[in-house]
Amino acid sequence: MEQQGQSAASSMIASLTGWWELAGLHSAVSDAPVNWLETVTTAEVAKNSPAVVAAAIPTMVPVPPSIAWPTNLEMLRTMIANGEPLPGNGFGTRFISPVGPSTSDVMVVSDLPDQDELSAGTLGSGATGALLSRMLGAIGISLTDCYWTMLATTVPPTGEVPEHAFAELNDFVRYQLGLVKPKSLILLGSAACKALLGEELMKSRAALRNINHDDSSMTVLTTFHPRTLIARPAMKAQAWKDLQMFAKRADL
Questions:
Q1: Distance CA 120, CA 115 (A)
Q2: Which residue has the higher pLDDT, 251 or 37?
Q3: Alpha-carbon Rg of the chain, whole angstroms?
Q4: Which one, 72, 174, 183, 223, has the greatest CB density within 10 A?
């Protein structure tokens, strides 16, 4: 048993150090000063707290679906791959379906596919997926055990999810919550945070949130998208605090 415990601990440490390396940090200091935080203020960063608070989800007017939504995840993936007019599937011509098991304790929501995922045709197949796998592995969660979906399953010409579509995309993600029935939710990036919580990312990161769905409450973590950490490696320290907070959630 002692050897198994040491092996598990070694595996978790290797995963943690691995995702820091994937994010691009190879040393703790640099000769040249860099404003890694840019618009992130000290006051906003100081708001981080392990306390769990309930977030009021704004009321959004539902957008009537143009077609009947799928009744199971296998059908959902097929309809997305076939280019059916589901929410988020009409911004581009290359369609990327959600990945992961049909039932999962943890559900991940990001904004849209990355270019390397579009090329491979699979969500999580590129640098973002590799880093996210390391991030979750560092707190004992396997990405392959998580259901991972996006607001948009195609990429708009602007490369960003349009805010005017947030209400419909929020409805469709919540519909998937009903199919997967997770215990907790991870929102990656500002678009997913705004669409699902109606809040700015830096504000919502202050503490874990709760979403009420189908008469049940689930814990919600909001943190940076892995592509942000790849572009700005110094922000990994903040992301690590977010992950530690999520690891202590009450629904384990």
A1: 9
A2: 251
A3: 18
A4: 223
The C-alpha atoms of residue 219 and residue 73 are separated, in whole angstroms, by 22
With vertex at residue 13, the alpha carbon angle to CA 11 and CA 16, rounded to the nearest 5 degrees, is 110
CB atoms within 10 A of CB 150: 26
Q: 53-56: which pairs have CB atoms within 8 A and are 24 or more residues apart?
A: 53/206, 53/207, 53/208, 53/209, 53/210, 54/209, 54/210, 54/217, 55/197, 55/199, 55/204, 55/209, 55/210, 55/211, 55/220
What gap in Å lies between CA 147 and CA 98, rounded to an integer?
7
pLDDT in tens, 159-190: 999 999 999 999 999 999 999 999 999 999 99
Q: Where are the beta strands (DSSP E) in 56-198?
A: 106-110, 147-150, 184-188
Report yes or no: 218 and 185 within 8 Å, Cβ to Cβ. yes
